[in-house]
Amino acid sequence: MHPATRLNLDADRAGGVTEGPALALAPKPRMGAQAVSPLARPSMGPARRIAVWLWGALPHVLTATLSIGLFVAFWYFATKYKLDFYIRFTNIPSPGEVLDNASRLVNNEKFYNNMYVSLRRILLGFGIATVSGVVLGLLIGQYRWMKALLFPVFETLRPIPAIAWVPMAIMLWPTNETSIVFITFLGSFFPILLNTIHGVNNVDTVLLRAARCLGVSEYGLLRQVVLPAALPHIFTGLAVGMGVAWVSLIAAEMISGQYGIGYFTWEAYSLIEYADIAIGMIVIGVLGLLCSGAIRLLGNMLMPWMANSANGERK
Amino acid sequence: MSKPVETTNATGHILVDHLSVRFGRNASLVEAVSDVSMDVKPGEFVSIIGPSGCGKSTLLNVVAGFIQPSEGRVTMDGKPTDKPSADRGVVFQQYSLFPWLSVRKNVEFGLKQKGMPQNQREQAARTLLGLAGLLAFENHFPDQLSGGMKQRVGIVRALATSPQVLLMDEPFGALDAQTRIVMQQILTNMWQRFRISVLFITHDIDECIFLSDRVYVMTARPGLMKAEIPITLPRPRTPDMALSPEYLRIKQELRALITEESLKAMGGELKDSGLEGFAIEVGPQGVVELI
């Protein structure tokens, strides 16, 4: 007899032995979660498909428009009649003023520079937090001695809000720019770290055992099993971390900044350019939304198995 | 021995020598496995059957290298099985496929660890998947497969690294009766093809008769080896054999042994809950249904 498994099997013989039961057992391939509406048939052209999709989305679009429309209408009337009932709308810019200023800012290079500076700070701070948070989280989650060594420090520092670090950060770092990036990093680091640790602790033991008896190395286990298994939790951490990164960034820019969209917003207040405050707020909101969307998109790209699980059942 | 051992296939010899495994300390100390000795000869299919909680999974985990023995020795081809290794493939009771890898990548996993180049391991994985009738599903994610298919991928993945033994911990426990029978046939085919030793844990009497060369019966509390029964039925085995006198004789014997154990195992619980009389009323047939 041949020692153990042979992979270079004769294909004909291979088929002959298992064909019966194999065929009998093979179910129809269940395609993933292609949640195609009953109206959308594969035979339809793309134009018609889009039409069907639009028709399906119509109620949602209508209610969303109504919701936002009501808010803008309230804003419009409150500022028009200078509403004053404890909340004071006397100095609040009207939607029209905001729109006027916005059309002026569209051609303002300095304004774009502010957006660019903020985004760069976010990318740097959040990027460093992602790399360090995930790496440290994997190590702390996987190795007890790492946890014993590092976790107490992090647990002590974690309750301190990132903004509380501002004065200390100004002293710590050589330039204002680095201290703002540091604040942004701090804000997103802890959610990413904690969620990664949580994800590692939640990895199914049977997967670790299965990998071990397939001959995986210690590094391979971390890289090929623990990391992907913890990925859903890591992305929860990234989503939360991105939110906190923006909070920290805007606060830091308002306190100690030069340039940046938070600085722009605060400066608008100092210069009595009230309409610009609203523009700054809206831009911050939109940028934050885009960043969260990018995280979600990246998550879907890196975790195709999550989107594909049967009938769209997400874990 | 029930089956003549082919001398050319000398690897995959598992020897369990006076093994004891204890969990916990002091008052909460539990002896899961107690002074068990057994072996699996090269190329042999050996099952361990026993009531739930008798320590049969613990025994398998020691052979796999997941648990260290408290006393005694477990060796494969003379080397202690003190840590998991690719020469002992394991198929788990729960589905253990990596959900983030496609079916083929799951099968390739062990080959990748060995450093086999991408195109070679892809080819090897496809050959094996073809054997198990799963080639059409090579690019599916595990979550898109049925339970029986997942378990077949699990078997194929464990076989891919050319292990000397296959350790199977109630691999078909979660499957329905029909799928189970088909899976048993597929497993028999794979085993005959690869000629490796198999240690199979089950609580299903028919399953262990259909598959095995030899069956060990384990007792609960403490987990002792109670009996060793050779299955002398000829191969290839067919479902029709379930009606042969030989099959029925073995089944009767195993059933008697296991019923006794189950009654013993449940007796304490029944007595504790004030249902002592009930234990007497449950005949051998009745309890077997519960196993």
Please count the helical segments of chain A: 12
CATH topology name of the largest domain in chain B, in short, is: Rossmann fold
Strand content of chain A: under 5%
Number of domains of chain B: 2
SSE arrangement of chain B, N to C: EEEHEEEHHHEHEHEEHHH
Q: What summary fits the major beta sheet of chain B?
A: 6 strands, mixed
**What gross morphology of chain A would you assign?**
globular
**What is the CATH homologous superfamily assignment of the largest domain in chain A?**
MetI-like
- Could you tell me the radius of gyration of chain A in angstroms? 27 Å
In the CATH scheme, the class of the largest domain in chain B would be Alpha Beta
List the keywords:
heterodimer, A: 315 residues, mainly alpha, MetI-like fold, 2 domains, two-stranded antiparallel sheet, 12 helices, 2 strands, 74% helix, globular, disordered N terminus, disordered C terminus, B: 291 residues, alpha/beta, Rossmann fold, six-stranded mixed sheet, four-stranded antiparallel sheet, 9 helices, 21% strand
Structural write-up:
The longest helix of chain A has 39 residues, at 218-256. In chain A, a hairpin with a 1-residue loop joins strand 1 (84-85) and strand 2. The two termini of chain A are 46 Å apart. In chain A, helix 6 (166-172) crosses helix 7 (176-201). Chain A has twelve helices and two strands. In chain A, 74% of the residues lie in helices and 1% in strands. A two-stranded antiparallel ribbon of chain A has the order 1-2. Chain B has 291 residues and is an alpha/beta fold. Chain B folds into two domains: 1-87 and 163-240, P-loop containing nucleotide triphosphate hydrolases (Rossmann fold, 3-Layer(aba) Sandwich), CATH 3.40.50.300; 100-162, no CATH class. Chain B is 39% helix and 21% strand. Chain B contains nine helices and ten strands. In chain B, strand 7, helix 5 (177-194) and strand 8 form a beta-alpha-beta unit. In chain B, helix 2 crosses helix 3, helix 3 crosses helix 4 (147-160) and helix 7 (245-272) crosses helix 9 (284-290). The interface between A and B is large, with 51 and 67 residues.
